[in-house]
Specification:
The protein is an alpha/beta fold. 29% of the residues lie in helices and 25% in strands. The N and C termini lie far apart (44 Å).
Length: 486
């Protein structure tokens, strides 16, 4: 088996330092034990003890070694996703055993989870595949993405090079129970808090992967309520999230949430507004936006702490070649997936014979800054009867910032229509959404005359209209609600 070797790089106050190379992420665990075995590795919920658990690198490695023996000889292992300490041990133990982890979002309906697992377990998995993650299903049926050790190490190292983080020096005091308080991390060490699903590529690489490579302290929870419970205990310096949560953080304030030490806020999934970007900056927090796909490990582009700009997702991280064809981005490099699990035909449609992966995204490369701006999905472009084209994603995202609007969908059915999924009980929601929605549409000349409609009943995850993240599955909504496929 041939491995690619990637440098582990992080920053000190003086300079970047190359420390070591790894062929697998699990090798980084051994390195951290050797470098800082008594240092705090992770704080997470112990589902057996019913309280927050802190483990040092040595303690974690010992438990991973013991657990890995139960996975020996298994080629594919399903790890339940509940963001507990036990899940972290299991994920690392599968790596240690040399098996392939099948990871499915625990928020999906049980039958959907079972179907995805069954599909992955039936498919042949090549020996160098370390992980199968499923796409969110935003653009169609979720597909199992096969990622190799080289994908996982290389992409995490590339992200870490763009956004360095500091290894453990001292750590939060472990709470004796869920209500206990802890003191802060000492000077120099980063605490990374994860509130996104590690069954998705964003958190898997940008949280778990960079944690292992850097040796910082990792605090693991799930969702906004999880953030509210754990952040005051560990007082994180690094958090990755999505725009909707970033806006809630601004509304509630950094200090009340235990985010008074926050220095970097990673924001993915969609663009954060210019206003929010600037507000975080005024609070001393740099917003790091990036871009990628599950099929690319996921990171294609990332801003850095030095070049972060609103509306931009940074430059290409190390390892990528790129082409922009008719406005659509194609990439090639060592971070591209092995393929779709059990679906050679879909793989061939996604990756051509020369290794170029079609992202499906329309982009604009800013020559002055070298950064990329994401314009929307190429297959979502609306062509009106006058020949003009609209990319609906920016309009939909702005509408979804209105309190009470859970989802927005812009479509053409002989005329331009905006459909919204409306929650009148949401905090701050207006009595009638039409006025704030119309105000947003007025900012877009091509959409200002769109008619406004509401989904009734609301969009449903069980009917496949929403992903586990809560974003709409465009084609499924069009088929279910509006009677056509696009």
């Amino acid at each position: 088996m041939t491995y690619q070797w990637f440098p582990l790089i992080w920053v000190t106050p003086e300079r970047f330092v190359t420390l070591k190379t790894f062929s697998k992420l699990i090798d980084a665990l051994d390195h951290q034990v050797a470098m800082r075995g008594d240092g705090d590795a992770v704080v997470a919920w112990d589902r057996d003890a019913g309280q927050w658990k802190r483990a040092t690198w040595q303690q974690l490695a010992d438990q991973v070694q013991d657990r890995s023996q139960q996975f020996e000889g298994q080629s594919a292992i399903v790890v339940p996703s509940d963001h507990s300490y036990q899940q972290i041990v299991d994920v690392l133990a599968v790596m240690r055993s040399g098996g392939c982890e099948i990871s499915v979002d625990g928020r999906l309906a049980p039958q959907v989870q079972q179907d995805l697992i069954a599909r992955a377990m039936r498919a042949p998995i090549e020996p160098d595949v370390a992980l199968v993650l499923f796409t969110s299903g935003t653009t169609g049926t979720p597909k199992g993405v096969m990622l190799t050790d080289a994908n996982l190490v290389g992409n995490a190292a590339a992200k870490l090079q763009a956004v360095p983080q500091r290894p453990w020096e001292s750590s939060p005091r472990c709470p004796s129970g869920s209500g206990s308080a802890g003191n802060s991390v000492g000077a120099g060490g980063d605490v990374r808090l994860t509130m996104l699903p590690i069954s998705h590529a964003y958190a898997r690489t940008c949280d778990l992967g960079t944690w292992l490579l850097s040796g910082c302290t990792w605090a693991v929870t799930m969702g906004y309520e999880g953030l509210r419970h754990l952040a005051p205990i560990v007082r994180p310096t690094l958090v990755n999230t999505v725009p909707a949560t970033a806006y809630r953080i601004l509304d509630e304030g950094l200090e009340p949430l235990g985010l008074d030490r926050l220095r970097l806020l990673g924001c993915g999934g969609a663009a954060i507004s210019v206003d929010a970007f600037q507000q975080f900056g005024q609070l001393g927090v740099t917003v790091i936006q990036g871009y990628g796909l599950t099929e690319t490990g996921p990171v294609i582009c990332s801003a850095t702490p030095d070049n972060a700009r609103p509306g931009m997702v940074g430059d290409f991280v190390d390892g990528w070649e790129h082409q922009i064809r008719g406005g659509e981005l194609f990439v090639r490099g060592p971070h591209v997936m092995k393929g779709y699990c059990g679906d050679a035909a879909a793989t061939a449609l996604k990756i051509d014979s020369q290794g170029w992966l079609r992202t499906g995204d329309l982009v604009q490369h800013d020559q002055a800054s070298g950064q990329l701006r994401i314009l929307g999905r190429s297959d979502d472009v609306i062509v009106m009867d006058n020949g003009r084209k609209i990319s609906p994603s920016w309009i939909e995202r702005d509408v979804q910032r209105i309190a009470g609007v859970r989802n927005a969908l812009l479509v053409w059915r002989g005329a331009l229509e905006l459909w919204i999924d409306w929650d009148p009980q949401a905090s701050g929601a207006a009595a009638d959404p039409n006025d704030p929605v119309r105000a947003v549409l007025q900012q877009y000349p091509e959409a200002k005359r769109a008619s406004i409609h509401r989904f009734n009943p609301p969009l449903s995850r069980d009917d496949g209209e929403l992903t586990a993240k809560g974003t709409h599955c465009r084609q499924r909504v069009l088929q279910n609600r509006l009677g056509h496929g696009g």
